[in-house]
Amino acid sequence: MDNPLREGLIQERVPEPLVLVIFGASGDLTKRKLLPAVYTMTRERLLPAAFAVVGLSRFEWDDDRFRAEARQGCDTFARRRPVDETLWSNFGRSLHYVAGEFDDPEAYERLKARLTEIDARYGIPGNRLFYLSTPPSTFPVIVERLGKAGLVSRQLKPWTRIIVEKPFGRDLGSAQLLNRQLKQFFREMQIYRIDHYLGKETVQNMMALRFSNGIFEPLWNRNHVESVQITAAEAIGVEGRINYFEEAGILRDMVQNHLFQVLCVTGMEPPVAMTADAVRDEKVKLLKALRPIPREKMDEHVVRAQYARGRVLGESVPGYREEPGGNPASTTETYVALKLLIDNWRWGGVPFFLRTAKRMPKRVTEIAVTFKPAPHLMFARNGAPPVPNVLSIRIQPDEGITLHFGSKVPGPSIDIAPVNMEFRYGTSFGSEPPEAYERLILDAMLGDGTLFIRDDETETSWGFISKVHEAWAEQRRKALPGYPAGTWGPPEAEALVKEAGLEWRKP
Ligand SMILES: NC(=O)c1ccc[n+]([C@@H]2O[C@H](COP(=O)([O-])OP(=O)(O)OC[C@H]3O[C@@H](n4cnc5c(N)ncnc54)[C@H](OP(=O)(O)O)[C@@H]3O)[C@@H](O)[C@H]2O)c1
Q: What's the angle, vertex CA 316, arms to CA 313 and CA 321, rounded to 5?
């Protein structure tokens, strides 16, 4: 604290001077998310003065063209718009571009020369953050070429880190292989496997809710919780990504990463500290406690389906097989619901229901924790069921938390009606939560891996998901249930929860 005027002020975390190198600089993610996030971070003074970006992809662009593309991306997608002209004149100048094919060793020599020149110009001591915003098939070649070009250092100072986009593998074997390929050149602490769900304020708020309040944690177990439902519903279909989706399916695309991360923060034990390894140790323990589903009982625990033609938000939409470029015989699932059991002391016997789908009636992601009813119902009339106590945490949209409970209806008789206590991010804090990518890129720059996925975490979740895929592969001839677009899924999924005496929520 050299400056006495700063004494007593909260210290913002500011990264050390660095160069962010984005592979896939001409891609969709770079334009829509990464560069707008970096611009907003600059605007919020979260980045060091000595900072530069180098984009690399195969278009024969120069720096000016890359800057123009970046500007267009920020004008359209940055959270803080309109773009500030004074700020842009500096920020734009810090963007640089190198053209090259990912498998061409010479591209890495050009990148190296450019980085040396930029380090000298900006006074950057060699710190590098590589971002693989590229097709997953190119991850191994980029890592190998970076390593062989001498662009990766295992030292702590200056540091080298790498952010790897999703999907991280497509099954257990490919995830293990990718981990081995990365570790030929990087140490685990240098690898940042991204899952943008963890960058969402509301997902982090689940940890804050559970571990910074005394009232929830004593109830957060099998003695008081009846069931948990996690829903990630999308109203959209495959939106031009049919080729990718046809290969992936929604179990790979959403459950292995996003929904399992949400499951982890909902169900894990309190970590001993908010440090990367303490938090990730607890997440891995939870994933390891998931009860394996015997292959012959897969249909009793996992329901998959595909959307048929229907109406969503008042519009007629085609079925999945009729989407442009779609395969009329496709068996790829666009809906999946799972009943999971966690074999540990906290959760023994409490079912966790997860579901995610495309072409649902609306876009919503929420966690709903349903508590057990009161043991003795003095107010029940005519056999009416008690109002369930549900704590619902909305991750998107309309981020917030609602507690549903029963209250006496005003009047001479004792009638109980459902009411809500509500917290909304927007109204309580007067601002929208920041973009997930802003938080995650900043954390990687700071060397904080808490919100990134560790090697054992990704392998444990793939281990579980791959078993489901293996069971499905054996059932290839079995008909896939359908659900009309704009509905909450197939009847088979209703049976999954009914067996536990429950219903799916209509969030
Ligand atoms: N877009 C999203 O919203 C989103 C969301 C979550 C995760 N992701 C993940 O983020 C990554 C990037 O996605 P994206 O949508 O941005 O993909 P994209 O639009 O296809 O961009 C890929 C980029 O890599 C470049 N590229 C591909 N092969 C190359 C090669 N051999 N040599 C040089 N450049 C090459 C492409 O250049 P060309 O244009 O010349 O092909 C383009 O710049 C993927 O792993 C994806 O799964 C994306």
A: 115
Mapped onto helix, strand or coil, the DSSP state of residue 281 is: helix
Same domain for 161 and 300?
no
Q: Is the pTM of this model over 0.70?
A: yes
Atom of ligand 1 nearest to the CA of 59: 40
Domain of residue 317, CATH code? 3.30.360.10
Task: Give the ligand 1 atom nearest the CA of 141.
Answer: 31
pLDDT digits (tens, 9 = 90+) for 411-444: 888 888 889 999 988 888 877 778 899 999 999 9
The single residue of 96, 196, 258, 404 carrying the catalytic annotation is 258
- Can you list the alpha helix ranges (DSSP code H) found in 297-391? 298-301
Domain that includes residue 54, residue range: 15-165
Domain contains 259:
yes
Please indicate, yes or no, whether residues 257 and 117 belong to a single structural domain of this protein: no
Strand order in the sheet with 302-308: 416-424, 400-408, 390-396, 364-371, 225-233, 352-357, 335-340, 302-308, 482-484
Distance between CA atoms of residues 491 and 337, nearest Å = 11
- Helix/strand/coil for 472: helix
Q: How far is the CA of 29 from the centre of ligand 1 (A)?
A: 7
Same domain as 257, residue 324: yes
Distance 99 CA to ligand 1 centre (A): 15
404 given a catalytic annotation: no
How many domains, in total, are found in the chain? Answer: 2
DSSP string of 323-347, one letter each residue:
STT--TT----SEEEEEE-B-STTT
User: What's the one-letter identity of residue 253?
Assistant: D
**Ligand 1 pocket by Cβ (under 6 Å):** 24-29, 57-59, 101-102, 133-136, 138, 165-167
pLDDT tens digits for range 376-423: 877 766 666 778 899 999 998 888 999 999 888 898 888 888 899 999
State in Å: Cα 484 to ligand 1 middle. 32
Shortest-distance atom of ligand 1 to CA 29: 16
